[in-house]
Amino acid sequence: MTNQTAGIHHITAFVRNAQTTADFYSGVLGLRLIKKTINFDAPEVYHLYFGNEIGSPGTIITFFPWENSRKGKIGGGQVGITTYVVPAGAFGFWKERLAKLNVDFAQTSRFGEQYLQFEDPDGLKLEIVAREQGADSKWTFGGVPAQQAIKGFGGAVLYTTASAKTAELLVNVMGLEKVGEDEGYARFKATGDLGNLIDINVEDMEHGHGGAGTVHHIAWRAKDDAEHALWRSHVESHGFQPTKVVDRQYFNAIYFREAGGILFEIATDPPGFARDEEPEHLGEKLMLPEWYEEHRTQIEQLLSPFEVRVLEEDK
Length: 315
What we know:
alpha+beta; 2,3-Dihydroxybiphenyl 1,2-Dioxygenase, domain 1; eight-stranded mixed beta sheet; 5 helices; 34% strand
C-alpha cells in the first residue's frame, strides 16, 4: 500500500498558565475547549485540547500548562509556526480583531498567500490565512461568529535541522507531494482539506530547545486502528523507531523522531472526544482515564482552577 496521511491530526505545545491559555485560544481566537484532562505521564499538569465544535482531526491544538517551566527557544527540531485557516473573506475581520485586542501582528506573504503572523502570550508563533478549502466551523464564542471562525489548521511551518532528509520523509514516508519552493521554503501537500499544507525551511536550521512557547510534537492522521498498524510497520521499514501503540483515550498514538529533530506522532481519527462527554458538554468537566479516577481528589487539588470566559472587550 501507498501510505498517505490526510494531514495534521493535532499539534501539542508547552505553555505556563491554563487561564492565560484559555483566554487566548478561546477568548481571542474563538476556539472551543473540547477536553480538559491531564498529562498522563505527569497528572499534576493539565492537558487541554482546543478545536472546532467537536474537535475534528485537523483542528486540535493541545497544551501542557506547566507553571514553572523554563522559556523555550523556537528553532530546528520543532514546529516553528502553527497555521490557522479562516474562511475566504474573513481576513479583514481577523486583522480588525487582533488590533482591537492589542495582539501585535505582521502581514506577510508566502506562496502567493497573505498571512497574519502573531504570537500567543508564551511566544508560540501562530499565523492566519484565508482559504476556500475546508469545512467551516459551527462554533461561535465571544466576539467570533461562526461565519468568521477559524476552521482548523491550514498547516504548519516545520523548522528542521536536516531539510533534505525531512523533505524526503514527508514525500516517501508520509505521502505528501512537493508542490513548490518560495523564498527559502519548500511546500508539501497532504490529501486532506485541513492541516494539509506543510512548509519547511530549505536551509538547515540550528536546534531550538523545549519549554514554554514551543511545540512539543506534531501529530498526523491515520483513519482507523487498522491503518494505524500499517503506519507503524511502514515507518519502521524506513529505518525509524516508532514507539508501541499508546492509548490516549481519544485516539491511539505512535511516536518517532525524524532526522531533522522534529517529534512526529501518528494518531487515529477515532474514537474522538465525545466518547466520555456528550457533544454539547465537551470540555466542561475534568476527565480522567480510569486508572487515575481513584486519585481524582488529590489530582484536582494539584490543578489550578480556570474558566473559559468571554473577554471584556467582547461583552
